[in-house]
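Comment thread on ticket #2218

A.B. wrote:
> Attaching the input chain for the structure job we discussed in standup.
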Amino acid sequence: MQIYGIQFDPKWEEKDYNYREVERILEAEKITENSLIVLPEMFATGFSLNTEITSSDEPVKTTSFLRQLSIRYQSWILAGIVERNNQQNFNRLICFSPDGQNIGNYDKIHLISQGGEDKVHTPGTQCRVFQVDEFTLCPIICYDLRFPELFRKGVKKGANLFVVIACWPAVRIEHWKSLLQARAIENQAYVVGINRTGNEPQNLYTGNSMIFGPKGENISQLGKETDILKGYIEIEQVLKWRKDFPALKQSKI
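C.D. wrote:
> Ran it. Output below, let me know if you need it in another format.
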């Protein structure tokens, strides 16, 4: 499966501008059908905690945009938005299939209290997996990356591909790189990490979106500029490595 990760600098709380920017980036690339296109956490607004803006007109507005993208490019789409349900706001990842069907959502479980996210968002409670072509994909959002038990729950549900969408700040970018690679190694799975770049009122972001293979090999990596992370992943590589080196089967926990 071909991966396209959209690393860009979302304009603060400007959804329509950010939709156009995503379209501009994709239009400059020849997208292979049945690929996986990934956008960062809260791509339409930046990491704003103003839920009157982030969840306004949702889920209709952003999901309509993403559905149209999935149909236009005949590809899988993963992206992060904020949705309000029953007066609660969730930092949510949504997934669309190439025919425009919403095949699943995941709500961020670990909300970062250091930035006050836990004051405005309600934490999710369940690890999720989606069937994306040949892969069983487990979605992860930003701060979740620091909690390996969530990844192991994903493996127990059959995951062989983890996709991490993030607004991961520059001040801790070395943690981002190390943790992505560690999660690939310890779960013998592909890990795709898509981060944003640019500036916000409280944070600087330096991208470094990455793809790691099931042995921890670096398949693809970006710097700090707006760009598309590209890489090709093969289910056979996961299956072979798990068979040749059956560490997961030897876990005593």
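A.B. wrote:
> Thanks. Noting for the ticket: The helical segments are 15-27, 51-54, 60-73, 148-156, 173-187, 235-244.
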